[in-house]
């Protein structure tokens, strides 16, 4: 399987008045046309890894890597124009909460059309038709009605599906989903995951699924990277996650509640200083 994305020794640093914060420390992995999960606690560097790949790291941060390549393009040396052309067209990112990702003063349909027209020369009628088809593809029942609504007029689940439609309208090869279901209820979560699963299978996309929900990742992804303090501490097949070797991964698994089991109080993760080395 040829690699769609190659990451070697990725580092993201944030200079502050009290010193340098190393958010990502030497992360390396390759991604083919598969579903790769990245899990870990808040602050472990998951989102910053995704943002570095997208080129969305804040300007004051320092990003370095031995290799950061997508489809033969060196992302570190790519010009701002090349980066803009890639974003939305070949690489897309679904952010965590649609409330902060969608423009509140533009209708949902206009935002999706704007994304398409940024990357393809299409007429107004064709752009509208394709946007409506994409809204239908993410299981929005009345696309024509939702097309004209504003973000505040739809539920969180529908907003997230509109966000997914916007990210997929230009047919990306790589999709980075940063906790795309954390703001949704369980039934809508399953619908969104089903949409992503179908798109990966039908379009042959590569998917990086960032989450803190180990149970969700183990059932949805092919492989899992476990991050702690900016580093990957374990890489394992998702189906084998229950047999993880690293004490941090086992600790995370052990902290999950089990239905029907008397586990009061729930175990607390006992972090070891050597895990961060």
Automatic annotation (TrEMBL):
One of its GO terms (cellular component) is plasma membrane. Gene3D superfamilies: P-loop containing nucleotide triphosphate hydrolases (3.40.50.300). GO terms for molecular function: ATP binding; ATP hydrolysis activity. Keywords: Amino-acid transport, ATP-binding, Cell membrane, Membrane, Nucleotide-binding, Transport. PROSITE patterns: ABC_TRANSPORTER_2 (PS50893). Its main location: membrane. It is found in: Cell inner membrane. Residues 5-254 form the ABC transporter domain. This is Peptide ABC transporter ATP-binding protein. Pfam families: ABC_tran. One of its GO terms (biological process) is transmembrane transport. It is a peripheral membrane protein. Belongs to the ABC transporter superfamily. InterPro entries: AAA+_ATPase (IPR003593), ABC_Ni/Peptide_Import (IPR050388), ABC_transporter-like_ATP-bd (IPR003439), P-loop_NTPase (IPR027417). It comes from the Bacteria. Probably part of a binding-protein-dependent transport system y4tOPQRS for a peptide. Probably responsible for energy coupling to the transport system.
């Amino acid at each position: 399987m040829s690699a769609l994305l190659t990451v070697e020794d990725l580092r993201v640093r944030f200079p502050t008045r009290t010193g340098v914060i190393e958010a990502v420390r030497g992360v390396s992995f390759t991604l083919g046309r598969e579903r790769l999960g990245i899990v870990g606690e808040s602050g472990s560097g998951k989102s910053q890894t995704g943002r570095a790949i997208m080129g969305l790291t804040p300007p004051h941060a320092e990003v370095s890597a031995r290799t950061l390549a997508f489809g033969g393009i060196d992302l570190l040396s790519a010009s701002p124009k090349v980066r803009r052309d890639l974003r939305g067209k070949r690489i897309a990112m679904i952010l965590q909460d649609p409330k902060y990702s969608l423009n509140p003063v533009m209708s949902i349909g206009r935002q999706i059309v704007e994304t398409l027209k940024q990357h393809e020369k299409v007429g107004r009628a064709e752009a509208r038709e394709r946007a409506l088809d994409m809204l239908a593809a993410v299981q929005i029942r009345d696309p024509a009605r939702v097309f004209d609504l504003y973000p505040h007029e739809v539920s969180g689940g529908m907003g997230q599906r509109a966000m997914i439609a916007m990210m997929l309208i230009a047919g990306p090869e790589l999709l980075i989903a940063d906790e795309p279901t954390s703001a949704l209820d369980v039934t809508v979560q399953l619908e969104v995951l089903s949409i992503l699963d179908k798109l990966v299978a039908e379009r042959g996309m590569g998917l990086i699924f960032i989450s803190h929900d180990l149970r969700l990742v183990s059932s949805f992804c092919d492989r899992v990277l476990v991050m702690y303090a900016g580093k990957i501490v374990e890489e394992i097949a998702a189906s084998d996650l229950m047999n993880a070797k690293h004490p941090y991964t086992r600790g995370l698994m052990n902290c999950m509640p089990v239905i029907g089991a008397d586990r009061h109080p729930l175990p607390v993760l006992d972090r070891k200083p050597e895990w961060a080395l």
